[in-house]
Amino acid sequence: MSKTVRYKFDPTNPPPLTEAQKAEIAALKARPEDDIDTSDIPELTEEFWRKAVRNPYFKPIKQQLTLRLDSDLVAWFKEHTPEGRGYQSAINKALREYVAKQDRKAS
Fold first, then answer.
1. pLDDT (tens digit, 9 = 90+) per residue, 21-35?
2. What are phi and psi of 38, to 5 degrees?
3. Cβ–Cβ contacts within 10 Å for residue 3, how many?
């Protein structure tokens, strides 16, 4: 009979690196770029980045906060989501789309 072992990992507060990990990072950092064999890695072209899409499994870490919004905006989002559920996610999506649009304008 085997026991299930569970580990908790908080990506915002990772454990400190061990001395062995620090030594490995230092050794890699000290290597000259020419020593790295990249022959099996294709160059990423502009065409690649134009067609690139975000990883569909990517889920950013959410942060809970208090935010004051105009009541008519909240009512609109609640009205335009099924049974008023998911309106906060709809607001998040609208903000994300706005930010992406601003990023596209800036570049």
1. 999 999 999 999 888
2. -110, 20
3. 5
Q: What are 39-44's contacts with CB under 8 Å, separation 24+? A: none
Residues 6+ apart with CB under 8 A from 12: 61
Q: Which residues of the chain have pLDDT under 70?
A: 1
93 touches 80 (CB < 8 A): no
The secondary structure of residue 1, as a DSSP letter, is: -
CA 83, 66, 97, 56 dihedral sign is negative
The CA distance from 74 to 87, in Å, is 8
Cα–Cα–Cα angle for 72, 75, 76, rounded to 5 degrees: 85
